[in-house]
Amino acid sequence: MVLEKKVMTKGKKSIGRQRIEIKELDDRGKQQVTFSKRRTGLFKKASELCVLCGAEVAVFVFSQKKNMYSFGHPNVETILERYLDGKTMSDSSSSSQELVPVDEFNMQYDQLQKDLEKEKMHLVEIEKMNKKMKNTNVGFWWDEPFDENMGLEEMEQYMKALQEVRRKVGARIEEFRMPRTSLMQPMNMPMGLGNDFVNVNSWESNACGGFLCWNNM
């Protein structure tokens, strides 16, 4: 078996069609890859025949390992039964009821194609976002570069936000340090930390050399 292939050379006109010999592949890996691709192509062509011409088709393919693959429209069983029984389409009322209208089949196919394109675009956007996050090393908001043009009022708000975060973190740490029996104590009760006593709700912060410090420490 031979196929004709039109050969094009760069910067030159076509030299016409040449015959390419079709012969069995020696490499087992290439055989499996080719079998998978050609089987998919065969089923695709059969599907197009059903859609374009309203044909009823059944295709059976067996691999070298005796695995069977099939394609059928409206389904393999109906086509096989009609073939074995010798019935025509007019003889079988049930088979005609199972047929899917060509227009409906085309609409479903087009919708699936659109959904597939949307998913591909969504995946591309996600990959772009992940790549951007890796390049910018996005972290916590306090890790962002400090704005030198920030005014006094904005800096005070920024400092209050940091103080609030530290207060909540300190309260959370104290919850973990508390014994199980004292978990029900009100948060304004003094709790021992070594030789000192700290009231969680009365923590205050002052600026000490550019750092935040507690007045009880």
From TrEMBL:
Organism of derivation: Quercus rubra (Northern red oak)
Stretches assigned to the MADS-box domain: 15-75
Pfam families for this protein: SRF-TF (PF00319)
GO terms, biological process: positive regulation of transcription by RNA polymerase II
Entry GO terms, CC: nucleus
Classification via InterPro entries: MEF2-like_N, TF_MADSbox, TF_MADSbox_sf
Name of this protein: MADS-box domain-containing protein
GO terms assigned for molecular function: DNA-binding transcription factor activity, RNA polymerase II-specific; protein dimerization activity; RNA polymerase II cis-regulatory region sequence-specific DNA binding
Entry keyword set: Coiled coil, DNA-binding, Nucleus, Transcription, Transcription regulation
Keyword Nucleus: yes
Location of this chain's protein in the cell: Nucleus
Residues forming coiled coils: 102-136
